[in-house]
Amino acid sequence: MNTRKNTIVVAINLIAISLLTGAFILYRTIWPAPYMLSIILPILSLSVFVTTVLATLVYFSIRCRQRAFRGIEANLEQITHCEDSGKALESLEAVPVGATTTDSHQGWNRLLGILDEVSGQTQNTPSENTLGQFLCSYDSQRLLGLFDSLPDGIILTDSTGSLTLANRACEGLIGRALGDIIGCLLVDLFGDPQAKKSLEALLNTSSPQADSHFNVTIGSEQEKSVLSVYCRRLAHTSDKGDILVNIRDVTQQKIGEAGRDEFIAHVSHELRSPLTNIRAYAETLLADMLLDVNAQKEAFNVINDETSRLIRLVNDILDISRMETGSLTLEKGEVVLDRLVRQCVNDVKASAAAKKISIQTNYHPKLPNLNADREKLAVVLNNIISNAIKYTLEGGTVFIETNVDDNFVLIKVADTGLGIGSEDIDKIFEKFYRVDSEETADITGTGLGLAISKEIVVLHGGSIDVSSELRNGTEMLIKLPLTVTGPVLGPAHN
Q: In the chain, count of helices (H) and strands (E)?
């Protein structure tokens, strides 16, 4: 760079010397002295001055531009001599921007900006090494705590199927202490023949990333648990690959599926029975148009009763759907409760008489009106009174009583029927639940009535209390909060 500057200075000096030499020669040979002194010499002197000034400006302009290029050249020389590419990129510097900045300089600065963006994106993208370094630097106790807090059981085995690692959830799921689990063989973990067969097939396969999925039932008959077991071979490990096992408790899911299947079966039966009766009596009426009046009346009554039964079933299903979605609402109005209870009792007298069941009543003389949903309260009363008759043996008794205390209207329905065992009494209000016994096997029902009844009473701000002993009858007490809308009335009669 110094050689270039020296060259420019010498060139300027040579130009000036040439001009002066030319002027001297002209002075000595061509023009006379007066003319030379008055005209030629001033012109030559001015030319020399202008040439010197222009040459100086050109020199400094070139020097400024070269200074920027020297910065780029220095950066490139540093990259050439630096073996670490990361450090070489970090050492690059931008060229100062000024009046003499060219497109080359701006392009260099733009290139540095792009390199910085790419470097930042690379640093923000975690690599496998970065993740591994993070896990290695993470507190091992916290990692173990995280591993043990997982709700699913996690097990790791070596390629031979010997357990090398397990979390705390495995103890509760499998029912064995961790000390007993670690070191045992995977095929012996569950004691189920089908599970053992599936695990042996997984261990014997040579396919990388092979997997196996099965369900296994463990525990006693009273406390059975269904476990979903998923096993997968880890292909990136040594030999055939270690095996990762995930164990999940799906007992409640299976119970829900069984309840759904049972519900579908019950609903199908409940639909089939009335539809069969309706079809049979309708065909009888069509086949013999000359039936006597009593036979026709009986057929129409059966068709009407079975149609009502279908409507109730469909309404139950719709109510359950509304309960599931939280859209079951009340349409409140003034309800003459005494009249409603009496009407519901009258509705079931025919079915009670068919089983020779006695219905005894004790109505409060001044039962107050309520601000409630009349139709839904009728569903509750019909469900509970009908259940009392349904589960009472022939010749039994159903007792219905209404009363009032300081806060609630009380409706009690008691029977001398089959009763409910202590193990079932907390479950009778669950959807689809029906007591499973030989005595109730022939009694039809969907298991929805009590679930719907409780939901309706709770929406009114009340409750249903149950007391029962097996084979000693059942008593249900409906409590509805006092929401008096008018004067307290005496007994209402139709």
A: 15, 12
pLDDT at 458: 92
Q: Are residues 377 and 475 in the same domain?
A: yes
Residue 292: give the domain boundaries.
Answer: 255-325
DSSP state of 281: H
Q: How far apart are CA 192 and CA 189, in angstroms?
A: 9
Residues 6+ apart with CB under 8 A from 209: 232, 233, 234, 235, 241
Count other C-beta atoms under 10 Å from residue 26's C-beta: 14
| Residue 375 is assigned to a structural domain of this protein | yes
- DSSP code at position 36: I
300: domain CATH number? 1.10.287.130
The count of domains in the chain is 4
DSSP 8-state secondary structure symbol assigned to residue 162: B
Please provide residue 153's backbone torsions phi and psi, each rounded to the nearest 5 degrees: -80, 130
Q: Are residues 471 and 357 in the same domain?
A: yes
> How far apart are alpha carbons 443 and 394 in whole angstroms?
13
Long-range contacts of 20-25 (CB under 8 A, 24+ apart): 20/44, 20/48
CATH number of the domain to which 352 belongs: 3.30.565.10
Question: Is there a single domain that holds both residue 44 and residue 172?
Answer: no
Q: What is the pTM of this model?
A: 0.48
Higher pLDDT, 476 or 141: 476
- Average pLDDT taken over every residue of the chain: 78
| Mean pLDDT on 408-430 | 88
414: CB partners within 8 A, 6+ apart: 388, 398, 399, 400, 401, 473, 474, 475, 476
Mark whether 262 and 243 lie in a shared domain.
no
Per-residue model confidence (pLDDT) at position 110: 73
In a domain, 13, yes or no: yes
> Which residue, among 155, 219, 220, 212, has the nearest Cα to 181 in the 3D structure?
155
Q: What share of the chain is helix, strand, coil (3-state, %, to 5)?
A: 55, 15, 30
Could you tell me if 302 and 341 lie in one domain? no
327 burial (CB, 10 Å; 0-12 / 13-18 / 19+) is: exposed
